[in-house]
Amino acid sequence: MSVQPGWYVDPADTETRRYWDGEGWLGAPIPVDATVPDGPPPAEPPPAPVTPAAPAASTTPDSATGAPGWPPRQGPPPGYGPQPGHDPGWGPQAGPPGWGPQTGPPGWGPQTGPPGWGPQTGPPGWGPPTGHPGWPGRPPEPRPHGHRLAGYGRRFAARLIDFGILFALNVVVNGWFIWRWIQEWAPFWKEAFRRMARGETSSDGLPLPDEQVRSLLLVILLIATALWAAYEVPTMASGGQTVGKRVMRIRAVPLAADEPLGMGRALSRWTTLGLPTLLWSCAGLGLVLQLVDALSPLFDHPLRQALHDKRAQTVVVEVPHQIDSAPSNDRNQPSGDTP
Prior knowledge:
The chain is α+β, with helices and mostly antiparallel strands. Helices cover 32% and strands 9% of the residues. It starts with 5 loop residues before the first strand and ends in a 21-residue tail after the last strand. Among the domains are: 1-43, no CATH class; 146-318, no CATH class.
C-alpha cells in the first residue's frame, strides 16, 4: 500500500520531518517542531557539472607510458620471458611501479547510492507488511502530524463514556415518551408471557398496541438523534474531543493539517455514524449500519480510519501528556539588592 504524499517524520532521524511524494523523499529535512509548509518543498537546483582535469603530459619520450598524455602501456603478454635483443631483466610493464588501472580514487568502486544502501521503494527503513516473501518485517506505524494513532481500546472506551452521558440525557429529556411507549406494549407482553408459562403457542387474541405506538417511537428516535448531534458536533468542531475522548486522551484531527475540524467536517463525520439512529425502527437497519461503522477501524490499515473518518478525511490520534512546570515563587529567590 502506497503512502499518500505529505510531510512525515523521517524514520531515519525522528528529530526531522521530510516530504514524501509517494515514491521517495523530496527536498531537504526540516525540524520536527517547525511549521509544515503547504505542499512540497521547492525543487533544489541541479549540481554544477564537474570538468575532469586533463592528464599531465609526460616529458620523457622514452618512458614506459609512451607518448605524452597516453595511458600506461602494457609490456609483452603475460608469461613471456626475455626476448633476444632486449635487456635480460626486462619484463612486462604497466606504468610506474605499484600502479594499476584506476576508475576512481584508490579503493573506490562503482556506487549506486550512499555506502550500504540498496534499492528503495519507499522511505528509508520501510518495507511491506509481514507475509511478503523477501521483505523483512512490517513498515513503521504512520504518525499523522507527529502524533501516535489512537488504539482501538481507547476509542471504544471513549465511545462507551459518551454513550453513558447520552443515555443520562435521554432519561431526562426523553424519559416520558419512553415510559408511554413501554405502557403501550405492556398488555401485549404480559399476555404473551402468560401463554408461554402455560405452554400455549397460539397468538390469536393478543392485545396489540394501537397506532400511537408508532408516533411515540418516531418522537423518541428524533429526540435521541437531536441530543446526540447537540452533544457531539459542537465539541468535535472546536477541539476534536468529546468528554469521552478527553478522558481517554485522544482527539480527531484532519489529515490535511493539525487544526480544529470545523463545523462542516464535524457534522459530516457525525452524520455517517449518528444519523442512522432514525432507521432503528426499520427492522434495526440503522443499528446494523452503526455497528459496521464502529467495527471498520479494525480492518483499515494503516490509519485505522472508521467510515465516518474516511468521509470527513480525519484520523484519531493520541494526545501527548503535557508536563506543566511548577510556578516560580519569587519569595524563594534571593534579592538582588545589597542589604
